[in-house]
């Protein structure tokens, strides 16, 4: 039996996606060739890329609204610098909600003034700052919708006329939002969409072409858009698996459907964290992430026992990020509700044992 996989990333993928992906490695499209050994310019792969880009826009409700989708290399981390390279003229505003936002701010400083509008660093990034003011004359506002490491999530976004850029690596396709509020959204595939190796970038085309500097081709959104995400050899396998996952999600009923399941899973686990006297949650309640639940044992002496118990229950990936410790249960789209129940059962058993 497959383990209950709470890994934060790379993370769980739907069984049927893994099945189809493994078939494509051996014989793709009934052509008696592997997906890994055909030209990315061949029709079957061009169709995959096209389909993946269309599905991404469709699921986000961004078709025919001036947006294009790209599948690029280099992880979300490359987007930290690409965003600034392509869009930062003089100054940009950043909301600092954790490790990933901090890294984005650091890269932006190479290109101009990056103003930190607010930060939750004072309390170990356990909450989402609110009520900050948007500085005047900035090129864009950048935020991280879900803080994968500390387990917080933005429930609302600033009402502003400033162009909004969002790193949605760990909660894209997990909840309904008005995605047209954002001019650029990016997400590394390995959190909620596919394997590591590709990054989805959704761009409103009219925001480009406004900086003076020369941009190297590989880091230039316009180049990738003109070449329909095929400027160089794309990461064919990660794009294919992402496409399969997006097809899986569409068939289930899209974001509207999966959001309900995600809320059920999160509610089941947070209810137990709050009820069980042996555990305490890490993040501020109103800012809790429905994707990554962070929690600690009240008494660390129980750690060895608890660790043995969840491992025996066939659970994987529950350790907190190496920078914060404790526990983190990542409940991405493909994680079934029964896996969360299995974890809750272990937490209750620990309570009974004392
Ligand atoms: C994991 C993660 C990243 C980094 O992604 P890479 O693909 O490893 O570069 C960036 N932002 C968020 C929110 C993440 O969860």
Automatic annotation (TrEMBL):
Pfam families: Aminotran_5 (PF00266). Pyridoxal 5'-phosphate binds at residues 76-77, 100, 148, 167, 190, 232-233. The modification N6-(pyridoxal phosphate)lysine is found at residue 191. L-glutamate binds at residue 41. Pathway: Cofactor biosynthesis; pyridoxine 5'-phosphate biosynthesis; pyridoxine 5'-phosphate from D-erythrose 4-phosphate: step 3/5; Amino-acid biosynthesis; L-serine biosynthesis; L-serine from 3-phospho-D-glycerate: step 2/3. One of its GO terms (biological process) is L-serine biosynthetic process. It is an enzyme of class 2 (transferase). Its main location: cytoplasm. The keyword Amino-acid biosynthesis applies. GO terms for cellular component: cytoplasm. HAMAP family: SerC_aminotrans_5. This is Phosphoserine aminotransferase. It comes from Tenacibaculum adriaticum. The lineage of its organism: Bacteria, Pseudomonadati, Bacteroidota, Flavobacteriia, Flavobacteriales.
């Amino acid at each position: 039996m497959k383990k209950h996989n709470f890994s934060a990333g790379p993370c769980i993928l739907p069984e049927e996606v893994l099945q189809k992906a493994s078939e494509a490695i051996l014989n793709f499209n009934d052509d008696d060739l592997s997906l890994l050994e055909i030209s990315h310019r061949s029709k079957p792969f061009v169709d995959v890329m096209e389909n993946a880009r269309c599905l991404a826009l469709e699921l986000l409700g961004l078709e025919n609204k001036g947006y294009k989708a790209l599948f690029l290399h280099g992880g979300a981390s490359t987007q930290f610098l690409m965003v600034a390279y392509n869009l930062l003229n003089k100054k940009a505003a950043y909301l600092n909600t954790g490790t990933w936002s901090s890294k984005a701010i650091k890269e932006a400083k190479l290109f101009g003034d990056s103003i930190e509008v607010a930060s939750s660093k004072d309390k170990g990034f356990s909450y989402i700052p609110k009520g900050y003011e948007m500085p005047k004359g900035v090129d864009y506002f950048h935020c991280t919708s879900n803080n994968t490491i500390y387990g917080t999530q933005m429930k609302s976004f600033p009402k502003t006329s400033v162009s909004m850029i969002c790193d949605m690596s760990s909660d894209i396709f997990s909840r309904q939002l008005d995605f047209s509020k954002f001019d650029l959204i990016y997400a590394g595939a390995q959190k909620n969409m596919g394997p590591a190796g590709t990054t989805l970038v959704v761009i409103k085309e009219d925001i480009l072409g406004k900086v003076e500097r020369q941009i190297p081709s590989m880091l230039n959104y316009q180049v990738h858009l003109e070449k329909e995400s095929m400027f160089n050899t794309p990461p064919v396998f990660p794009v294919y698996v992402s496409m399969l996952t997006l097809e899986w999600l569409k068939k289930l009923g899209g974001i509207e459907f999966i959001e309900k399941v995600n809320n059920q899973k999160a509610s089941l686990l947070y209810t137990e964290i709050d009820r069980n006297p042996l555990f305490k949650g890490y993040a501020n309640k109103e800012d809790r992430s429905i994707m990554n639940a962070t929690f600690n044992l009240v008494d660390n002496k129980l750690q060895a026992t608890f660790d043995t118990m969840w491992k025996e229950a066939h659970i994987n990936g529950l350790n907190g990020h190496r920078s914060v410790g404790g526990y983190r249960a990542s409940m991405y789209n493909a994680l079934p509700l029964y896996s969360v129940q299995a974890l809750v059962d272990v937490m209750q058993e620990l309570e009974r044992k004392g």
